[in-house]
Amino acid sequence: MATARNAANAAEKRRLILDAAVRVFARQGFHTCRVSDIADEAGVAYGLVYHYFRSKDEVLDTLFLERWNVMLAAIRETDGQDIPARRKLEAIASFIVDSYRHDPNLMKVIIVEVTRAANSFGQTHIEKITEAYNLIGAVVEKAQASGEFRTDISPQFAAMAFYGAIEQVLTGWIFATLPQAEGDFDEAKRLIVETICSGLDR
Q1: Which residues contact 115 (CB under 8 A, 6 or more apart)?
Q2: CB-hemisphere CA count at 13 Å for 181?
Q3: Which residues pair with 201 in a beta bridge?
Q4: 28-32, 75-79, 119-123, 167-171: least confidently modelled range
Q5: Which of 18, 55, 62, 200 is the least crowded, having the fewest Cβ atoms under 10 Å away?
Q6: 3-state secondary structure of 149
Q7: CA angle 97-99-105, nearest 5°?
Q8: What sign for the dihedral angle of Cα 37, 111, 31, 126?
Q9: Cross-strand partners of 19
């Protein structure tokens, strides 16, 4: 009983630190903040952060991999459904946009500090990032084989264009260059899928 309670308390402290790190990274930027900033935000002792994480780099790695693996699982689940490719892409776009709606700070950190950081964390996680492109490309490739999509556009290019369009829209929201009223999120989903699928439709 005590062991289970201790494990639950440890998991709670670890989550507290990760959630605080999201706020600090989003507010100050990863490279300009210190581990002590994360500790202050979490309301814990400085040394406790190092008890759970070897460095702030490991904190960022953990945040990215947690969210990215959830997205990869969602793409796999969607692709496993017996629905047209356009509806699969709609579901994928919806999942990513809704992830931003529910936790904009975390998505800001992932995009600004990881996927667009070509010379640092983006390079470190390039295989994981590419995995998402490959899964989306597989959706396109199967639709090409069934005759739903045209075949003169490579699945890899289509996948990168699709994800790139989503990420660019998220970047627009992050830097407040696109409107973010409630209806704008659903409209963005529709326009992304329409833009890409209209180019892929036979």
Answers
A1: 122, 125, 129, 167
A2: 2
A3: 149
A4: 119-123
A5: 55
A6: strand
A7: 110
A8: positive
A9: none
Residue 181 Ramachandran class (φ > 0 left, ψ -120 to 50 alpha, else beta): beta
Element at 188 (helix H, strand E): helix 182-200
Token pair listed for 38: 């994360």
Helix axes 85-102, 126-146, angle to 10 degrees: 150
Mean pLDDT of all residues in 136-154: 96
Using CA atoms of 62, 66, 67, 69 in order, give the dihedral in degrees to the nearest 10. Answer: 130
The secondary structure of 17-45 as a DSSP string is HHHHHHHHHHHH-TTT--HHHHHHHHTS-
41 within 8 A of 120, measured Cβ to Cβ: no
CA distance 116 to 61: 14
Burial of 73 (0-12, 13-18, 19+ CB in 10 A): exposed
Give the tokens for residue 175.
């830097």
pTM beyond 0.90: yes
Does residue 186 surpass a pLDDT of 90? yes
Confidence grade of residue 183 (pLDDT, cut at 50, 70, 90): very high
Instruction: Report the distance separating Cα 142 and Cα 20, nearest Å.
Output: 42
